[in-house]
Amino acid sequence: MKVSRLYLAFVFFVLYMPIFYLIYYSFNSGGTMHHFESFTLDWYKEVFADTRLLVIVLHTMIIALLSSSLATIIGVFGAIAIYYAKHRWKQTLLTLNNILIVSPDVIIGASFLILFTIAGIQLGFTSVLLSHIAFSIPIVVLMVLPKLQEMSPTLIDAARDLGANEWNVLTKVVLPYITPGIFAGFFMALTYSLDDFAVTFFVTGNGFSTLSVEIYSRARQGISLSVNALSTLLFLFTLFLVVVYYVMTQRTSVKGGQK
Amino acid sequence: MRRYAYAIPYWLWIGLFVIAPIILIVYYSFFDIEGHFSLVNYETFFTPVYLRMTFNSFWYAFLITAISLLIAYPTAYLLTKTKHKQLWLLLIILPTWVNLLLKAYAFLGLFGTYGAVNALFEALGIGTKQLLFTDFSFVFVSVYIFIPFMILPIFNALEKLNPSLIDAARDLGANEWTTFRRVIFPLTLDGVKAGCQAVFIPSLSLFMLTRLIAGNRVITLGTAVEQHFLVTQNWGMGATIAVFLMIAMASIMALTGNKKWGVRQ
């Protein structure tokens, strides 16, 4: 029992050590990640004074929110289409759907780069947005589809019998039932978009950058504690998102339980 | 057919972003750097340089997957025994929400010549070691990044395991190890497979880690694709490597064949 506790404690220690190491040194006036001189908030001031960085943060947010919303809409209808598809097509559609999930990022990035170049789409905001939508759609489908499958088909039959047309069945029966799945898909898409580096790195041009790409280019130049300050802020934002997500799923599951 | 109309954007997506890119990659792999149709890229791929790189990539991916599994299985097992297991599981998942590059950047500090790990080594009397820019640090950081993706499916598989089966094995006189080897492990094999898929395939394309942590000492296929597409602009060669990566990916999927794709969870 003792050994197992120690083992788990060690795993958690290693998992969180790098994150807290970053946060700890973001308050270091010394400018390095190994010798703590004295407490300072200068690096945070530097982050908030860096207009270029703030614009990049704004771009990252816009891309994440836009791409996950659009991917959710397309993905939900995709999942419904797969649900209604004839049995022998279902497996093919699912395989096609999952290709982008299992592909290594470099392949997605490289193939999208070729695609945008051929289509004559300039690399920048549009290409990054389109790629993020593209790799988020299958995740939304995978989150929504199980909800559709657990829905009893008699619900739809009952609605039809009561005179509902296609549109009514969709908006009054199907969509409300799969709402938890839609939210889960949206949040997954959001985190995938915020987290993505490799695909964005391929399809972003010179003028446009997201946070991941910016962190990469800064990290390649060596250690700068403003990156630490930025990571602390991002970690807090992540915690906030986790709390929001859990409150939301908790609420929907309570509602589901009352039915 | 009219009722499929709402899914038109989804069909477009499948056509434009799933099927077309695969065709384009294969098509580009037949063109040399001057844009002439040729098989020169495939000839280059079968030279010792690229074959060694392919072998190395798979070796590193294998190491990363195996080490992750060795650490993750006991962790997942012990997690199912804890009191507030959902909370602990959330704490395992939380670090995956921190940007991958920030975690890699943290190791630049931790593994640096004067970093915390070397300070610890000094205190223990081992002495300062060169940690950064070695293949050790590449494997370590990769395992660090992927381990939650290995723990999660194994944890889910263990949770689904019917505990009375373990009791039955015990009643029939099996000891701890036999119970694990003959009952628990075979029944959680799906989780292990899912975890291995989630680790092995992405670890073939970690070009940012090879650049940041391994200091170009480790060149994987992913690094080569990035190099050809974004640095040397030899798209044909990059596409050829990508074709082999796709073949590798497809065979791994077939090997760990999970027919229940998408129905999972």
TrEMBL record, chain A:
Residue stretches spanning the membrane: 7-27, 53-84, 96-123, 129-148, 169-191, 229-248
Subcellular location: Cell membrane
InterPro entries registered for this protein in UniProt: Bact_Polyamine_Transport (IPR051789), MetI-like (IPR000515), MetI-like_sf (IPR035906)
Keywords: Cell membrane, Membrane, Transmembrane, Transmembrane helix, Transport
Biological process terms in GO annotation: transmembrane transport
Alphabetized Pfam families for the sequence: BPD_transp_1 (PF00528)
Membrane topology of this protein: Multi-pass membrane protein
GO cellular component: plasma membrane
Ranges where the ABC transmembrane type-1 domain occurs: 57-245
Family membership: Belongs to the binding-protein-dependent transport system permease family. CysTW subfamily.
Full protein name: Inner membrane ABC transporter permease protein ydcV
Organism encoding this protein: Anoxybacillus ayderensis
UniProtKB/TrEMBL annotation, chain B:
Transmembrane segments: 12-31, 58-80, 87-111, 131-155, 191-214, 234-255
This protein's GO CC annotations: plasma membrane
Domain ABC transmembrane type-1: 54-256
SUPFAM superfamilies recorded: MetI-like (SSF161098)
GO terms of biological process kind: transmembrane transport
Record key words, sorted: Cell membrane, Membrane, Transmembrane, Transmembrane helix, Transport
Topology in membrane: Multi-pass membrane protein
Pfam family for this entry, one: BPD_transp_1
Name the record gives this protein: Spermidine/putrescine transport system permease protein PotB
Organism: Anoxybacillus ayderensis
